[in-house]
Amino acid sequence: MTRSAWYRKIVMVVVTIGLFVSQIGGAVALSASTTPFGPERFVTNHATYAITTKSAYYQRIWRSAIRAWNKTGAFTFKLASAKAAQIKLTTATPSESQQLGRDVGLTEFWARHNYLFKINSELNPELLHNYGYSRSDDTHVAEHELGHAMGLAHNPSKHSVMYYENRSVGIQQVDINGVKERYQTPAGQAS
Ligand SMILES: [Zn+2]
């Protein structure tokens, strides 16, 4: 066993790091169809989460979004400690807000051979506040970020929680169908 063999092994592990951003709501409508998904997924249709923001308001927003997705039965988010959780849900600090620019939400993911193993999702309180997003708008942005956490991509239709500039639309049947299809489709295959 040589050192170079060890290095070679590291190089062969396929790690994907991705990023989704959600911008301020507005714009066009296209026809609704099953929400598309990327090649990445969790091994099964459940994952553990922890809400790490200190804001009581945004803790409630994340909890509402979790409840809304869990109610669909397509995927189950289970509460875990911040240390153990696969998915961390938080808010941007004021300095992170500056870097986010026009992005109201952001989800970063880490996958190995297209299997997700770590997700960080954050909401941008400063921008949500400045643009007068209501409590339900904020919840929709959180639901959208959780959509990415499960492996959903953007839906070009405005009638989807996964529309890239979504603000006023909650989880739709097309989104539930997208999650179901994602978990009936092997990792590595996108829709
Ligand atoms: Zn997005």
TrEMBL record:
GO terms for biological process: proteolysis. InterPro entries: MetalloPept_cat_dom_sf, Pept_M10_metallopeptidase, Pept_M10A. Keywords: Hydrolase, Metal-binding, Protease, Zinc. The keyword Protease applies. GO terms for cellular component: extracellular matrix. Residues 46-183 form the Peptidase M10 metallopeptidase domain. It comes from the Bacteria. GO terms for molecular function: metalloendopeptidase activity; zinc ion binding. This is Zn-dependent protease. It comes from Levilactobacillus parabrevis ATCC 53295.
